[in-house]
Amino acid sequence: MDVKNDKEDLALSASLTGGVQDAPTLTDDAVFGIISEDGPNYRNLGWMGTSILMMKTQIGLGVLSIPSAFDALGLVPGVICLIVIAATMSWSGYMVGVFKLNHREVYGIDDATGLMFGPAGREILGMGLTIFLIFCGASGILGLSIALNAVSNHGACTAVFVAVAAIVVLGLASIQTLDRISVLAWAGLACMLTSILIVAIAVGIQNHPDAAPPGPWVSDYKIVNSPSFTDGMSAISQFIFAYAGTPFFFPIVSEMRDPRHYKKSLTVCQTVVTVTYITIGTVVYYFCGSYVSSPALGSAGKLIKRIAYGISLPGLFVTSTISTHMASKYIFLRFMRGSKHLAANTLVHWATWLACVFGVIVVAYIIASGIPIFGSLISLVGALLGTLQCFQPAGCMWLYDNWGKGKEQQSLLWRFMVCFSVAMIVIGTFLMICGTYGAVVGIIDSLKADETSGAWSCADNS
User: Fold this and answer.
1) What single-letter DSSP state applies at residue 215?
2) Residue 253 in contact with residue 100, Cβ under 8 Å?
3) Looking at domain 46-448, what is its CATH homologous superfamily?
4) 436: closest CA among 260, 278, 230?
């Protein structure tokens, strides 16, 4: 009896069926190849760790911009738009899990588009994914510089804080596997939720928002607002960014021990995220009105601001770490896929991995320093890159897997899903174009009005 061949057959069977691999020596993955005890175990992420990672990719910078988005749209339209975005993004996230189970060789959104549209689609979405993740990392670094300024009362030049944040993220993002980063995600999520709850409670008991004029205060929140086209699109883009976890979900499900548990993880994630966004956004905007700040942690006075930012620091570090790690791993896989160095602790493996992380963090640092406007940067990332990764690919994935199956016997459900998938593609393209225009106009207007510090500035950005 050939024990070695039996183990290899078991490994292949487990990989194809999505079964749990109890020993790394039995894992033959369609993406990472042979995973042995001699290298990092890229298939060791449980369903709960998956949920936490997915939550942390969303509950971070996104939630800090939601109250200001409510201010632009009005409370009721804001909540409605948020729920609609939540529903569409949840379906998009669901399609990630379905497509991964149908096509085990897929690691990222670029692999999916490569299957659907060939090499050209792969390269376009791959480049878009990389830029999106780097911009997310840059947004996190910018948020960290704001937090460090707030906690220290502008104790150093802002450019120094940006550099310090980038260096720390560089070290954390160098951790190789998501199951280890999920440990950081637990702490980061707890810190972020605690900080925003403190702010929500504080704005409810304070006399008036920190930015409001002295004297008696009555909140000027609006049930319905009449924003300009650019302001409205910018606000919707902030919602998209808050839910733009779909590009992260492909790499996360690829490192799960059992990808069949993905739907459970997604349900837990989206439920917690949506309840948090609506609750925090509504409470903070209701009590602060037009004087809500972006990021929202600065809305409750200087003392609470310092406390909230101090508590949120681990969460902000983890947010930027996850984005930087995934961008680096995408590039790393493009270099190493199919090589013996991919899952082995060799000099080539480590040199390539660290070079990828370093290159990504340098670009993220340049972006964070060059576009020092938090709200506008969030809108730009959400509109230009978030929609491209979340809306159009999800519609295309459903059509790719189901068009041929249902075309001969066209059921009512099949026709509805065809229309829905096409609508996702059309709406995503519209939001991408219009939202990007609104974000760019917002950045230009802010710079003209001198509402923000310049690039590589020492001015306090908190």
Assistant:
1) S
2) yes
3) Amino acid/polyamine transporter I (1.20.1740.10)
4) 230
Q: b/e string for 46-81 if b means 16 or more Cβ within 10 A?
A: bbebbbbbbbbbbbbbbbbbbbbbbbbbbbebbbeb
Q: In angstroms, rounded to a whole number, what is the distance separating the alpha carbons of residues 76 and 70?
A: 8
Residue 314 tokens, joined: 């681990």
DSSP state of 34: E
Residue indicated by tokens 């964070």: 368
Which of the 8 DSSP states describes residue 256? B
Give the Cβ contact number of residue 366 at 10 Å. Answer: 16
Degrees (nearest 5) of the Cα angle 128, 133, 137? 145
Phi, psi of 396 (to 5 degrees): -65, -35
How far is the C-alpha of 183 from the C-alpha of 150, rounded, in Å?
A: 27
- Residue 28's Cβ-side half-sphere holds a number of Cα atoms within 13 Å equal to 12
Question: How many H-runs (helices) and E-runs (strands) does the chain carry?
Answer: 16, 2
Helix (H) or strand (E) holding 280: helix 262-288
Indicate the DSSP class of residue 386: I
Contact between 64 and 143 under an 8 Å Cβ cutoff? The reply is yes
Q: How far apart are CA 158 and CA 145, in angstroms?
A: 6
Say how many residues make up the chain. Answer: 462
pLDDT digit string (tens) for the chain, length 462 residues: 444 444 444 333 333 333 333 333 445 677 777 776 766 777 888 899 899 989 988 887 667 789 889 999 999 999 999 999 999 999 999 999 999 999 988 988 888 999 999 988 888 888 888 888 888 888 888 888 888 988 888 778 888 898 999 999 999 999 988 888 888 888 888 998 898 899 889 888 887 777 777 777 788 899 999 988 888 888 888 888 888 888 889 889 988 888 889 999 999 999 999 999 999 899 999 998 888 877 777 787 788 888 988 998 998 899 899 989 999 998 998 888 878 878 778 888 899 999 999 999 999 998 888 776 666 666 677 777 778 888 999 999 999 999 988 777 788 999 999 999 999 999 999 988 988 888 788 777 776 765 555 566 777 776
> Residue 201 in 3-state DSSP?
helix
Q: Which two tokens stand for residue 218?
A: 């009555």
Q: Look up tokens 């096509």; give the residue.
A: 103
Amino acid in position 94: Y
Report if pTM > 0.85.
no
Q: Are 451 and 443 in contact (CB under 8 A)?
A: no
Domain spans, the chain: 46-448
| Cis, peptide link before residue 295, omega less than 30° from 0 | yes
For residue 27, the SS3 value is strand
Distance, in Å, from the CA atom of 247 to the CA atom of 253, rounded to the nearest integer, reads 11
Beta bridge partners of 29: 33
